[in-house]
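Now read these lines:
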Amino acid sequence: MKNIKRNKDNHSESEINSDSFSIMETAIDLSVQNEYFNYSKSTDFNNIDYKEVLKESNNLFSENTPLETKKRILILLAHFGTAESYRTLEKYLNRSERSLRDWALLSLKECRMFLESDLLEEEGGFISTGLGGKDNKLRYYFIVSSKDGLTFSEFHRDSVKKGFEITCQKYISGIEEINFESSYAMIEILIPMSVAVGDVIEEGISECNKMEEFLFFHYYVTNVKKPTNEEILEYLDEIRHGEK
C-alpha cells in the first residue's frame, strides 16, 4: 500500500508539485483533521485482515455502534484503498451522523488517494486545510485596509475590485467574495497550489495603489478559518499602533 502525503496549513507553495496532489475541497475544522491524522499515525495497519474489516464495516450503519468504533472502521477502510472499501465509505457518508461527517469525508478522500495511487502506480496525496479549496486551488481569506483607517470611498472600492481582478487573471486565481467595511475589505480567494499567496496579495495591493496609494502595505491572510470580527479588529488595532 502506498503512502499518502499530507500537506497542512501554511505550506510552502513553491515546494508543491500540484500534479501529484489533489485538494480536500470541503472546509473541515483543523481539530478534526489533527485527530484523524494522529489516529491514523498511531494505527498499526500491517496485521489487519481486510475481509474482517469489510465484515465489521456493517457496524457503521448501526445506531448501537459506539462512535470510537466507527472511527476505527473508517480509518481502516480508508487505508485499504480498494474499490469495495471506497463504495462502503461513500455509502456511509450519505447516511453518517453529523458528528462523524467530517471524519467520513477525510476517510473517503484518503481512500480515493490510495486507490488512485495503486491504479496509476505512482505516489499521490492530498492537501487539507481548514478552508478547503476547489479545482486544485486553495481557499484563503485575506484582509487589506486603508492607510490611517480612512473610510473607503466608492473610488477606493472600485480600485480594490479591479486591482485584484487584474492580479487574479495573471495568477489564474479567482475571487469568490469581497466584503467591504468602512476601512477594510475581506476577500475570499482561490489560488493555485503552485502560486505563493503573498505574491497575489502584494501585487494586488500594488495594482490597487497605482492611481492613489490608499491601501496599507500590511495584510492579514489565513487558510485555517474565516476570521471573526474580534480577530479582524485586533489585527487592525495592532497594525495601526505599529505592532506589526
Summary: DSSP finds eight helices and eight strands in the chain. Confidence is low (pLDDT under 50) at residues 1-18.
